[in-house]
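Entry:
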Amino acid sequence: MDDKSLEIIGMHEDINIPKKNISQLRTKTDTGAYNSAIDCCYAEEKENSEGDTVLSFTLLNPHHKRYTGKKHITKKYKVKKVRSSNGIETLRFQVKLRIELKGETFTTTFNLSDRSKMRYSVLLGRKLLANRFLVDVSKRRKLNKSRKT
């Protein structure tokens, strides 16, 4: 894909996560991160009634205006070692979420982590951005604007 066909996004964009009933969630574009990350106040591996190990998690934190308090349960998740920008490695749960960004729908991997003390509850990483978007840091947040060249 050549650069002229890529959507231009700014440092901050809004996303929707329809299946989780979350809309207009402000994000920060992070070209230094491979995976995307989303704020999560609760995440725990459990055994369901069929004896399968599942991940139970709640997105965002109670103080966030988009917080729903809903617990989500999935069998499809991973536990990965993630290295922060200061070099510290921690284990994080990873889930795939279907999001809407710039009028299109994408499924991408999100690390679940406590981002309650961060300004942005979601980081959009390179795995989502690559071959889809160009980042123009001078652009302000735009909702569903048409493509610009």
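Residues 1 and 131 are 7 Å apart (CA to CA).
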